[in-house]
Amino acid sequence: MYKIKRLFIYIKVFLVMIAAETVSVFLRHSEEYKDLWIVSERGIDARDNGYHFFKYLRNAHPEINSVYIISKDSPDRKKVAPLGNLIPYGSFKHYLAFILAKVKVSTHIDGYSPDILFFHKFGKLFPDKSKKIFLQHGIIKDDLGFCHADQTNIDMFVCSAVPEYEYIDKVFGYKPGVLKLTGLCRYDNLRKNEQPTRKILFMPTWRSALRTCNRNTFAQSEYFKKYNSFLNSKKLSELLEEYDYELIFYPHFEVHRFLDCFNTNAQRVHIADFRNNDVQDLLINSDILVTDYSSVFFDYAYMRKPVVFFQYDESEFRNGHYKQGYFEYKRDGFGNIAETEDEVIDSLRHIINNGLNPDKIYLDRMNSFFKFDDSDNCKRNFEEICKLLDKQSV
Predict the structure, then answer these.
(1) Residue 393 has what pLDDT?
(2) Residues 380, 249 within the same domain
């Protein structure tokens, strides 16, 4: 059923593209589309590097003809609307902007397109001369096959750390000059609160096998059982009560369709949904991060805040999800690795009793990992894009 549905979507996108290509001939030299930069994330949100880069463009470089692609019903639309120049995701105008844009910027590969899956598969049917910028969704630490050069059509690939840059340069197969060590745009807004928020953030990532799950099979998965059990742990509730803390559970975006499967009667444990919560706000307004393998821990480390890794399935994760890259948690990680609920709770207790400070070994790793420790990431990315355009005009 899913394949049939996708087939009809592909046919629709193809036909609309043909129509838009025809219309675009008459608009190519119009002021509305002249030297156009389109910016997006997934077309449904504005809470990541795309939003922060667009905000920078509108404020620091209003001379750039830039637009942001976002759906009309996105919960983030009201946040980005004051910046102006919005185009509805999937609209005919989106197709026109996609065809006529001089620069295409997104946090996801083909994220600026009217349909990511279609253009990932069939994008070569519609070649263009635009510069395609991959801002990234996070710091890469694993061997992500879909990000290799033979799977993409990228002119600029953003990196944030020297080990990340060196690994991608060695393994992913990009031509010299494509990789840029400039930093994630959203890091410009990261800041550590001076006073404790008395909140613990629990943000596990997803598993590839869950993509094809329905609600019933998801509820039978070890992933659900392990993490729902943790939310209902008596020892966790006792810890939160003892130290007057709350725990916020906010899993990976792919898991949010099953969020209603999770439940807890614990008064200090809260389940946060996508529509009403911004990831960066959650990261800033919490004192400790508990995750498993999510690269969001790099954001926390950028703020020099403590992390706990709840990894109950390390070998299974490697076999069924992403292959390990340059980053080894035991050697390079920024926090203690826990395999059980009790070990997680012991780690949390240690961090709280340590004044919410990472242990020296982890703080030293944080300090040595990042190339930058400033708020100029958007500026560096903008300047590198301009260099690409200068080369193109020569």
Answers:
(1) 57
(2) no
